[in-house]
């Protein structure tokens, strides 16, 4: 679909033509949205803020996976392990070297990126199912490492982490940590959007779309296939570190293959190869169980509740709706929420003359 | 055209896949500044030859020299930087990217900013670099007359336009030698005329040496300076178009079996509307 710009919106320089948010209205919406988000802690309760924090953290991790799966066309079912590595790394860095948490988070990202490069090395040669199995190995190796490396992770008991602190400002509650996550979300998403409009980002997509002609264009396939693992792991590591300093406690059980699959679900539901889609997918996955809960609560005591015993089965109903959502998206909207969002925008741009 | 320095030289190139001999002992030179065409029946080894030059295949025997440098064993990805660009017989665009991005990929080896400086777009000059290269890419877009589709996703374009975008992407490499594998296959007369004009302009105004595989004899005879004929992986003739056309081997192997092919040059010359 061609990009539509409103009549009268002319670009007179290439700089103007390269912006992430192309129209005046989209920029307006952006600033308005940011202002609303900044005001959110004043209005919303802790529970709702907690959901937003979760969406932000999961969104960063999902964005990393999207760079790998959506943009570079590879596969990873070990993303949760990298997420977990980032969490432990940040906690370990802070406790061992007393590095301030604000630096621990990006450093944990870099450490995870290194681990990701090691486990991503097979990607230079493997594709498809074989690569999937190699990343599965990464998942299990790292999980085992978490359980055994007492010095690093605190073993099965887990590790207590310190809250985020910057110049004496402690972000140990939802109201304050929300701003930390918001800042990281903006940084990481703008970074990804920039990556995709510069040389290396285009090279990643070129490798996905047609690796033979990418090579003729001078693109080093092995380098970019491995690099995308590094970048994906960096995002997972930063998200994991944020997660660790949000919960103030990290333990092995959180980073199982189930979470890896959920990350994949976010990427598919949000839209493969879409930066903003990653955030939408994360929001969908975080909010879906809440919606199920709300429906169940609304029906409580009614005839349906009595017939199906919703109250007892709510926990497995949540899992089921996630599975059903992934399947339904694959069938009806394989390009995810990002495409649906574009269609809605296009509809309103042309309204009422949609043909 | 009296340019004589060879920019590309194939020396006794042979290519075998197991027992299949795709190329046998093929030697030829492409001179700087000429339009050189390879013709031959299907399966004659034309694309195999181009693949050897672009690095997709490695010759079993023989050597290929480009600009004085032995490139027989040079990895494919390094050939863009030394000045070899190519298009493919079957479309090989990046289908989900916009036309603009497709062509910008062609600038890959000329761009300096990787992900370190690309992610903070505004801080370390990545933006400046993008703008500078965008300007060059726009020149190519203007030249190939694809302004109206520059923001369109490549996979949604018509066949003729995609061929043109692919040419634009190869031109964006700023190659010294551009390899065109059937640039006009499947095009209608008007599109063919446009493409022939683009190739001539690339050659004459942009100073690119062109090596082309093409089945349309009319175009080949009209725009090539020299022609090489392959048959069953062997070179059976080389020379100026009219010499090659008169060669009895060529007539037997390629043209003789269908007389109407020979008469195509005149047809192609006719104006579209009278």
UniProtKB/TrEMBL annotation, chain A:
Subcellular localization: Cell membrane
Membrane spanning residue stretches: 28-45, 51-69, 76-93, 99-121, 128-147, 176-196, 227-248, 254-275, 316-332
Annotated GO MF terms: branched-chain amino acid transmembrane transporter activity
Keywords for the protein's UniProt record, in alphabetical order: Cell membrane, Membrane, Transmembrane, Transmembrane helix
One Pfam family linked to the record: BPD_transp_2
The protein's name: Branched-chain amino acid ABC transporter permease
One GO cellular component term noted in the UniProt record for this chain: plasma membrane
Keyword Transmembrane tagged: yes
Top-level division of the source organism's lineage: Bacteria
Xref: InterPro entries: ABC_transp_permease, LivM-like
Membrane topology: Multi-pass membrane protein
Species this protein is from: Roseicella aerolata
UniProtKB/TrEMBL annotation, chain B:
MF terms in GO: ATP binding; ATP hydrolysis activity
Pfam families to which the protein is assigned, alphabetical: ABC_tran, BCA_ABC_TP_C
Organism, as annotated: Roseicella aerolata
InterPro entries: AAA+_ATPase, ABC_AA/LPS_Transport, ABC_transporter-like_ATP-bd, BCA_ABC_TP_C, P-loop_NTPase
One cellular component (GO) term of this entry: plasma membrane
SMART domains per record: AAA
Residue stretches making up the ABC transporter domain: 8-257
Protein name stated in the entry: ABC transporter ATP-binding protein
UniProtKB keywords: ATP-binding, Nucleotide-binding, Transport
Domain of life the protein comes from: Bacteria
């Amino acid at each position: 679909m061609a990009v539509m710009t409103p009549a009268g919106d002319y670009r007179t320089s290439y700089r103007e033509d390269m912006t992430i948010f192309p129209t005046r209205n989209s920029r307006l919406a952006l600033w308005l949205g940011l202002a609303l988000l900044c005001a959110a802690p004043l209005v919303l309760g802790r529970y709702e803020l907690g959901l937003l924090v979760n969406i932000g953290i999961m969104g960063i991790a999902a964005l990393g996976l999207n760079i790998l799966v959506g943009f570079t066309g590879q596969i990873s079912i070990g993303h949760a392990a990298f997420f977990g590595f980032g969490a432990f790394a940040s906690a370990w860095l802070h406790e061992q070297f007393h590095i301030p948490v604000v630096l621990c988070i990006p450093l944990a990202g870099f450490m995870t990126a290194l681990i990701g490069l090691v486990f991503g090395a097979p990607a230079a040669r493997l594709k498809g199912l074989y690569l999937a199995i190699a990343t599965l190995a990464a998942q299990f190796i790292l999980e085992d490492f978490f359980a055994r490396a007492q010095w690093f992770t605190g073993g099965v008991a887990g590790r207590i982490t310190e809250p985020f602190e910057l110049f004496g400002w402690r972000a140990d509650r939802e109201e304050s940590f929300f701003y930390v996550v918001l800042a990281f979300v903006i940084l990481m998403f703008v970074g990804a959007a920039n990556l995709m409009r510069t040389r290396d980002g285009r090279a990643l997509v070129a490798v996905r779309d047609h690796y033979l002609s990418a090579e003729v264009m001078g693109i080093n396939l092995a380098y970019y296939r491995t690099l995308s693992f590094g970048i994906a792991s960096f995002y997972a590591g930063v998200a994991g570190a944020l997660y660790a300093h949000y919960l103030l406690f990290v333990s092995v059980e959180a980073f199982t293959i189930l979470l890896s699959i959920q990350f994949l679900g976010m990427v598919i539901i949000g839209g493969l190869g879409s930066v903003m889609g990653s955030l939408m997918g994360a929001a969908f996955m975080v909010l879906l169980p809440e919606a199920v809960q709300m429906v169940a609560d609304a029906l409580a005591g009614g005839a349906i509740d009595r017939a199906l015993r919703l109250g007892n089965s709510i926990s497995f109903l949540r899992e089921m709706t996630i599975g059903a959502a992934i399947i339904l998206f694959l069938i009806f909207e394989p390009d995810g929420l990002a495409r649906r969002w574009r269609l809605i925008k296009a509809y309103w741009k042309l309204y009422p003359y949609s043909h | 055209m009296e340019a004589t320095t060879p920019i590309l030289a194939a020396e006794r190139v042979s290519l075998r896949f197991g027992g299949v001999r795709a190329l046998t002992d093929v030697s030829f030179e492409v001179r700087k500044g000429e339009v050189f065409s390879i013709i031959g029946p299907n399966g004659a080894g034309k694309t195999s030859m181009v693949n050897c030059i672009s690095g997709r295949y490695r010759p079993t025997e023989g050597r290929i020299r480009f600009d004085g440098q032995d490139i027989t064993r040079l990895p494919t990805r390094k050939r863009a930087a030394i000045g070899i660009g190519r298009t493919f017989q079957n479309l090989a665009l990046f289908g989900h990217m916009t036309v603009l991005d497709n062509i910008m990929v062609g600038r890959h080896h000329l761009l300096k900013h990787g992900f370190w400086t690309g992610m903070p777009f505004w801080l370390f000059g990545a933006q400046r670099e993008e703008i500078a290269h965008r300007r060059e890419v726009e020149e190519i877009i203007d030249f190939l007359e694809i302004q109206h589709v520059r923001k369109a996703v490549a996979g949604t374009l018509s066949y003729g336009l995609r061929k043109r975008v692919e040419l634009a992407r190869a031109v964006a490499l700023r190659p010294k030698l551009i390899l065109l594998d059937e640039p006009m296959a499947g095009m209608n007369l008007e599109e063919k005329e446009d493409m022939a004009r683009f190739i001539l302009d690339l050659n004459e105004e942009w100073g690119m040496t062109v090596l082309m595989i093409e089945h349309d004899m009319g175009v080949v005879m009209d725009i090539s300076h020299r022609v090489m004929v392959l048959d069953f992986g062997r070179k059976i003739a080389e020379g100026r178009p009219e010499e090659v056309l008169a060669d009895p081997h060529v007539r037997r192997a390629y043209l003789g079996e269908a007389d109407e092919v020979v008469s195509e040059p005149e047809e192609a010359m006719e104006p579209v509307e009278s």
